[in-house]
Each structure stands twice: as C-alpha cells, then as structure tokens.
Amino acid sequence: MPRLRKRSILLSGHATSLALEPEFWEVLDELARTDGLSLAALIARIDEGRGERPLASACRVAALGFAARRS
C-alpha cells in the first residue's frame, strides 16, 4: 500500500492538511516552480477551481495533467 505524506496548508485563512502520495507532491512542487508560485499558492489555485471534487483528488488531477503536458 502506498504511503501518504501529509502536509499542512493554509487555505483562505484556514489551516487544513492534505495527504498525497510522495510522487504527487513531487509533481505539484515542480508545477508550482514552473508557474512561479509557492506550493501553498498552487494548492489555493487548485482549491478555487475544484468545484465539488475533493481537494486531494483535484490535486492529483492537476499533477497528472501537468505530467501529461511535459511528456
């Protein structure tokens, strides 16, 4: 079973934690650097556009989309 890495994120002034597999964190870190954002700013941007999707799922989808574009 894959291990999850939990990180604390501040979204809209509220602390929340987000648990993702390390591989997804690596891609999200790269996406943030590419877009000139902090990881927290990237997660906030994903959060704003996620609709009804859970935040962790939206982050995975964003990471997969970025990985597909760079391939």
What does this structure look like?
The chain starts with a strand and ends with a helix. It has helices spanning 22-34, 39-48, 55-70; strands at residues 5-11, 14-20. It contains three helices and two strands, in the order E-E-H-H-H. The protein has a two-stranded antiparallel sheet. The chain has one domain: Ribbon-helix-helix fold. It is 55% helix and 20% strand.
The CATH H-level superfamily is protein bp1543
Number of domains: 1
Helix count, DSSP H or I runs of 4 or more residues: 3
Helix-strand pattern, N to C?
A: EEHHH
Please give the order of strands in the largest beta sheet.
1-2
Rg over C-alpha atoms, rounded to the nearest angstrom: 12 Å
Task: Give average pLDDT, whole number.
Answer: 94
| First-residue to last-residue Cα separation | 27 Å
Classification by helices and strands: alpha+beta
Total strand count, please? 2
Enumerate the spans where pLDDT stays under 50 for 5 or more consecutive residues: none
Entry summary:
55% of the residues lie in helices and 20% in strands.
Topology:
Blueprint: E1 5-11, E2 14-20, H1 22-34, H2 39-48, H3 55-70
Antiparallel strand pairs: 1-2
Features:
alpha+beta; Ribbon-helix-helix fold; 3 helices; 2 strands; 55% helix
